[in-house]
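Hi team,

Filling in the usual template for the complex we talked about on Friday. All components are listed, including any nucleic acid strands or ligand strings, so the model treats them as one assembly.

SUBMITTER: L.P.
PURPOSE: interface mapping
COMPONENTS: three
RESIDUES: 902
SEQUENCES:
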Amino acid sequence: MLALRVIVIIMLMSSGLWANLVQVGSAHSQTTISGGLEVTEPGDTLLVHSGTYQESGLKIPHQLTLIGRGKPIIDGNLSGEIITITADDVSIEGFVLRGSGLSHLDENAAVRFEESQGGRISKNIFEDNFFAVYISQSENCIIENNIIKGLAETESRSGNGIHLWYCKDITIRGNYISGHRDGIYLEFVEQCVVAQNHSTKNLRYGLHFMFSNHNEYNNNQFDNNGAGVAVMYSRHVDMENNVFADNWGSAAYGLLLKDIYDSRITDNQFTRNTVGLYSEACNRIQVEGNNFANNGWAIKIMANSMDNVFTHNNFLANTFDIATNSRQNFNAFNQNYWNRYRGYDLDKDGIGDVPFRPVKLFSLLTEKNEPALMLMRSIFVEILDLAESYLPILTPATLIDEEPLMRVNQ
Amino acid sequence: MIRIKGLHKRFGRLEVLKELDANIQENKITAIVGHNGSGKTTLIKCLLGLDKYDSGEINIKDYQLNGDWNYRNQIGYMPQIARFPENLTATEVITMISDLRAGSTTQAQELISYFRLLDEMEKPLKILSGGTRQKVNAIVALMFDPDILILDEPTAGLDPVSSSLLKDKIHNEKAAGKTVIITSHIMSEIQELADTILYLLDGKIFFDGPVDELIAQTGEKNLERAIAKMMS
Amino acid sequence: MTTLLKIIKYQLHDLLRGKWFIIYTAVFFLLTDGLFRFGGDPGQVSLSLMNVVLFVIPLVSIVFGTMFFYNSREFMELLLSQPISRVALFLGLYLGLTLPLSAVYLIGVGVPFMYHAGIMTGSYWILLLVGVSLTWVFTALAFLVAVLSEQRVKGVGMTIVLWLFFAILYDGIILFILFALEEYPLEKLTLILSMFNPIDLGRILMLLQFDIAALMGYTGALFSRFYGDLLGSAVAVLALWTWCATPVWLGYRAFSRKDF
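RESULT (copied from the run log):
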């Protein structure tokens, strides 16, 4: 019996080395989180019991596991940052974090990782923070299953939900983000995975990518954001199985691409956006198997985009299917389904025998002369479009689907 | 009664009435005569305000025509060709006009039986014969007992019985103190009805005086010959 | 005034005997009802009806209006020899046609809307307003043409040309102007140009009611802001009213000088 106890103690000491459990709560010796943090050693676990802790400026300088039990609330009272982590392998779970300070000089976050490895933020609730999660110059972190709700005020008075800067190998999964400036913001980020998040009702973009190569995002839902999703100045981005919906407004996009190279956009849903997919100066993107339904413009592709391939997409009930600003086209459209297509299929191979021209003259005219939009839905415009579709003069001669599908691509 | 001074009317390049002066006397039947296109109907329409004359002056009783329409309360008009909204029945036309003028239809009822129209009153006007329509036309003109009657070819299209009924009616009206203006191509009819003749030629009055005087002047035996002589 | 009302009464009486009105009502009724039955929500139905309203109402009003005027010739002649003023007759004829045409439109579109959608949305009110306004404007133009032109064939031909101008050609001219003056800021100009065509004015007022207006970008935003506030709505209503009153007035002037 004694021998067994000795063995257990030895095992505990050797495994955790100095691993301790520090408890914080009204019933414990430590009643504040800052007090609890002071007595922790690297590798300890800080267990915080339910209650409201009016604390901010908490610094975590060494490895630590923070666990909230019974959803303890840490309220920063809008002064500065709540938790700043500068060590590796810090995990934060089960807290309600509220009120990081609004500032025009500092990007105050509820939780910030600074030059950290192996961090983890999971199952927390972030409420009314300026920035919620801010990770800079860090690697191998996981942000998952958090609920992040911002103040949703003006753009200049709110920060981003999840903000990554100079990071690598970060996973952002299963979060719900709303009411921030950008729901998720990535800048100079590599090899990240953004999956199964729901980013909605953010003031600007649901997801905003800048200068971030080799990333993928899939199975996310982006809806009702001020301007949709923006992916800019990046290479090798994989976008799969996402929903881009209800981004409706005079400058709103389902997905806005600018200077994107060698990327893939597959099996996404673009529904009820002013512009479903906007592409400017993008090269070698494979756009395949997406659904574009009920958008103002399904796709707007500027003439400086080249060698992009659009295939096996469905275009359903969009006001305009494709718009472009030039007679030139260096992209390939092949084997898509267009609900406007009125051709026939004599050999019954499922591919229409007559090519389809998805660019309406009117959409071309309005790209060149925006005020001409005042003629939208006018009979004159309908006639013009009809005439042009039979006798193309101004619309791009090569922007043509030679093999339009007869049936919706499942 | 009706004084016309310097009446001028043109339709485009066609001058129809040229400085026409005339007087139409009270309680007389005045016939306006002239060859086709001499301006008879135009003159009548000017009196009614249906045609707008270019210059000149028309006074009816003490009233000078200026576009106001009240004076038409004193006029009953029978146009040359009866024109009615085709879907209506004669009864509906009469009711409508009485309604519009806020007058009674009692006189109309008498006139309907006088012209023996009772059986035709409920039929749509478009299926009625020209003569029947002309009788409806006469009822419309007469039903408000106006002081002045303007009748443009009143007997045209009427059978002899109806024609004499109408002519009797016109005589009675005169006897009742009315002023009557009439046009007709049938000179015997005019000789029978009219007291005075206004002879229109080239948009002017060529002769204005009693029928007898015209016949006496030309030394012919009847009006038709007198007119023919005058025209030659 | 009472004479005017009586004339309207007899016009109504006469018109309601014709098949025209039943057909016109049925078309709107079946169309609206059908759009609902094929699964449209009130917004989509309004949007689909918009194209019909902008296309059909001006055409029917202007063509039917001239024909109606020509066919009322006998009625006019009969009445003008009676102690009735020409104003009362002209306005009576005009209202005697526009009132039933508007009523028929309101019933044909309104009844299916009420039992399918229940509540009336803003876009729906605008749809009704624009439909009725276009009826009045194009009937007025029809009367003007019919008064000025004695010959029926010429008159009906002219109305079709007028319709083509407002429904189609005018927009072509706008497009030409917009491209000819490409170098200049044109948003204000488009706003002004939209006032000079009742069909365009109606189309834009309606478009602004639908979320499709977001597609119109900056131009749309400018239109929204202008027509959205009190002054803009007043200007729009005034413009439509002017479009109706001017041809009625010109038509009456010609009518009052006309020989019958």
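MY TAKE: Chain C touches chain B at residues 3, 6-7, 10, 14, 17, 72-75, 77-86, 256-260 (CB under 8 Å). The first helix of chain C runs from residue 2 to 15.

Thanks, L.
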